[in-house]
Amino acid sequence: MSIFCIALPMGGMRRRDITTFININKPKQKQLQDLVMSFVLRFTYEVAPVFTLMEAVVLERMRHIVGWKDGDGIFSPGGAISNLYGVLTARHYACPDIKQKGLLGKKQLVLFTSEQSHFSILRAASILGIGTDNLVKISCDHRGKMKVAELEEKIIAAKIGGKLPFFVNATCGTTILGAFDPVNDIADVCERHKVWLHVDGAWGGSVLMSKKHRHLLNGIERANSLTWNPHKLLGVPLQCSAFLLREKGIMQQSNEMHADYLFQKDKNYEVIYDTGDKTIQCGRHNDIFKFWLMWRAKGEKGFEAHINRMFELGNYLRELIRKREGFKFVLEKGECTNVCFWYVPLRIREMDDDERKKSELHQATRCIKAMMMENGSLMVGYQPLGEHPNFFRVVISNAAVMEKDLDFLVEEIDRLGRTL
Ligand SMILES: *Cc1c(COP(=O)(O)O)cnc(C)c1O
C-alpha cells in the first residue's frame, strides 16, 4: 500500500493535474481513483503506516485551524457518525463506568440541540440508548440560531427534575438556513453547568479556513468536540468527515476493548498510531488520501480561496433574487452559502387570504420543481420549515458553479413560475 502511494507520479504532476486527478470522470482514471481510494485504513500503524501518518498530520492541522494545541480525532464515515461520536464521548465523560455497567440505574441522561439541527443528533440519542424523548429541542430565532437563554432554562429544569444534562450540540451551518449558533454564549452556559459542548460543523466547519468568514464560528476553541466534513463545503469527494476533540485520551478510553491480537502495547513503535482501538469500527475506509492530496495541491490558500468564492457566489445569487420581481427571501441575510427563497406567481401575489396564499405557495413550489425535473433543466430540492410553506433551497458548495449557472437557475424558475 505504502509503496503504491509513493509510486504515484506526484513529482511529475503539476498542481492543476493533481486536482483534476481527484475530480476526474474518465473511465480509466476513474478506475485508478477507485483503486487508490478504496484501500482500507487498517486498525494498526504497521498495516497502513503512510495513511495512518497522513491522517495524524491532517487531523493535527485541522485542530490547529480550530485553535487547539493538543487533542485527538478520527476520520469517520460521515457527519452523522461524527455526531454520534460526539454524543458517545460525552456520555462516557459523564458516566465513566457506562462501558461496563450500561445505562441501568443511572440518572436519566438528557441532551440538548436546536430545533433546526441535523436529525443525526436525534438518531444518536436513539442508538446510544438515551431515547429520543430525552433530547430537548431548543427553539431558534428568525435567523435559525439557537435561543441561548432558553437552553439554560431547560438545562436547569432538567436538573431540578432529577435528570443529568450531559451534552449540548451547537450547529455551525444549519442544514437548511445555514445558520451559525452563537458558540461563545452557548459555551458560557455549558461551562456554568459543566456540560459537554459539541459543535456540529459538518456543513459550516470548513468556513474556519477563511480568514474573512471564520468569525461566524467565534468561540469554537471552547468546544469539547467538533464535527467537520471536508466532503461538504470544501468539495472533497464523499466520504470525508472528521471528528475532532480538544482533549486527548477520552475517545480512547470510551471505545478501547484491548483486543490483544492487534493492539499489543509492547510494539517497536509508538502505539498511539494504532488508531483502531479508539474508533467504533475496526478497519476503516481510506478517506484521508484524497483530502491530503487535495490539501497538497491547493494548499490552505487554495481552500481559503474556495470558501471565499462559494460565499461570493451565494451573495451573487442573493443579489439576483433581490433584484427580481416575484422572488421572495425566506431569510434575506443568510450567513452561509444557503440561499432560501420562494417564487410567488402573480395570481398568488394578488390574494388577500393568508392561509390560502400559504397553501397555494406550497403547491406552486412543488409544481415548479416537478416541471424542472421533467424538463431535465435543473434538479432542485424544496422543503417547508416550521410555519413556512415549501421553498427553494440552493446550497452552493461546488467550485465548478459559475455566475451564469445561477443566472440560468433564476431565469428558469421565473420562466416556469410565470406559467402557473
Ligand atoms: C450533512 C450534515 C450532517 C450529516 O453529514 P453526513 O456526512 O451526510 O453524514 C450533519 N450535520 C449537518 C449540519 C449537516 O449539514
TrEMBL record:
Per the UniProt entry, what are the Gene Ontology biological process annotations, in alphabetical order? Answer: gamma-aminobutyric acid biosynthetic process
Q: Which InterPro entries match?
A: PyrdxlP-dep_de-COase, PyrdxlP-dep_Trfase, PyrdxlP-dep_Trfase_major, Pyridoxal-P_BS
Q: Which regions span the lipid bilayer? A: none
Query: What keywords would UniProt list here?
Result: Decarboxylase, Lyase, Pyridoxal phosphate
Pfam families (UniProt xref): Pyridoxal_deC
- Name positions with the PTM N6-(pyridoxal phosphate)lysine: 232
Which metal ions or organic cofactors does this protein require, according to UniProt? pyridoxal 5'-phosphate
Q: Name one GO cellular component term.
A: cytoplasm
Which molecular-function annotation in GO is an example for this chain? Answer: pyridoxal phosphate binding
- Report whether Membrane shows up as a keyword of the record: no
Q: Which SUPFAM superfamilies match?
A: PLP-dependent transferases (SSF53383)
Q: Which PROSITE patterns match?
A: DDC_GAD_HDC_YDC
Subunit structure, interactors included: Homodimer.
Protein family per UniProt: Belongs to the group II decarboxylase family.
- Please report the name of this protein according to its UniProt entry: Glutamate decarboxylase 1-like
Q: Which organism is it from?
A: Octopus vulgaris (Common octopus)
